[in-house]
Design a protein that fits this description.
Order of helices and strands: HHHHHHEEEEHE
Strand order of the largest sheet: 4-1-5
Structural class: mainly alpha
Number of helices: 7
Distance between the termini: 22 Å
Length: about 220
């Protein structure tokens, strides 16, 4: 379990075991986000819980740092561990922003916004606005007016929009028994998945399993 400077009651998360669960959740969310070709649903509860844990532990470390030399030493150790947790949380959020920047137009479509947090949606709108403004000032304003618009009038314009490459392959660990998984639309390509299996497979067939924690990405 994650070591804490506080008692179980003071933590407010039912002790160290609960704190360890919050940390493990964010760590796996980061790995899933890092390896999935699409943005996954924002882990709002896990992020909130870890932020609260960090804030609570920092406050406890500051209050007890001057009690004794032993507590001062322990406080320094806990601060190092808290720095690691901050890095883990920042890595998760940075990974999401990196993917969002690459596919910002796609995720600003109403059908795909539900995976974004309110702040991510605000960021995406600002990033899209600044990108379009930069393109206009650096290039488009010098073109004939009929070529300045970034909006396509073609009926199949959505096909030109960058999209997540869901046919890319990923490494997976199976957390719960799945049984037979269909790998193709034809239905003749299947695989049997049991708990503990580790496989490499196209992302599309396991996307829903990643979403409900049946499968974790590695």
């Amino acid at each position: 379990f994650y070591p804490t400077i506080m008692s179980d009651d003071e933590l407010g998360f039912e002790g160290e075991e609960k704190a360890a669960e919050h940390i493990a959740r964010i760590k796996q969310a980061w790995l899933n986000e890092k390896h999935a070709p699409e943005l996954l649903k924002y882990e709002e509860e896990a992020v909130s819980n870890l932020r609260s844990l960090i804030a609570t532990q920092e406050e406890a470390a500051r209050e007890r740092a001057h009690d004794s030399e032993v507590n001062m030493f322990l406080s320094n150790v806990y601060e190092m561990e808290l720095s690691r947790l901050k890095y883990l949380l920042a890595a998760y959020l940075r990974t999401r922003l990196w993917k969002l920047e690459r596919l910002v137009v796609y995720y600003l479509q109403p059908a795909h916004r539900d995976v974004l947090s309110p702040k991510e949606l605000e960021f995406a709108r600002g990033y899209d606005r600044l990108t379009k403004d930069h393109l206009h000032k650096s290039c488009l304003q010098d073109l004939p007016e009929s070529f300045q618009s970034l909006q396509s009038t073609a009926q199949d314009s959505s096909d030109m929009m960058p999209k997540p490459q869901k046919d890319s392959h990923v490494f997976c660990r199976v957390n719960k028994p799945v049984g037979t998984l269909q790998l193709s639309d034809e239905g003749d390509d299947t695989i049997s998945l049991e708990r503990g299996d580790t496989i490499i497979v196209r992302y599309q067939p396991v996307a829903s399993l990643v979403d409900n924690d049946t499968v974790s990405l590695l």
